[in-house]
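Backbone shape codes:
===
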Amino acid sequence: MEPKADMDTVLSLLNANYALHVCITYLVIIILFLYIADNIMSNKWDLLFIKRIFGVTIYNLIIKWFTFTTKYNKVWIGIAWLLLLIASLITLYVSGYLSNNIEIISDIIKSKKR
């Protein structure tokens, strides 16, 4: 006997899957940003175009921020990779559940529309 589900349960499951996809995209962007900041500071790039475009104050703020983040960048990149791995596995599980039970989900949606 299959457990009963209603439209709200199906919608919350689909919304959770969507939220996980957004989190994965966000984590990939954060990892890329931290990696770029780490490369900028380890290679000692000057980034003079930022000084010309935004001015000295913004340039100094960005350089201070980069030097602050590079102290802990390896740790944050590792944490972001771990969170990305966990979120990817959960998304695979939820997507597999959705694809295996698509008939039940479509029956719930059909019965709600009647």
The CA atoms of residues 31 and 95 lie 24 Å apart. Helices lie at 7-42, 48-54, 56-71, 73-100, 102-113. The chain has one domain: 24-113.
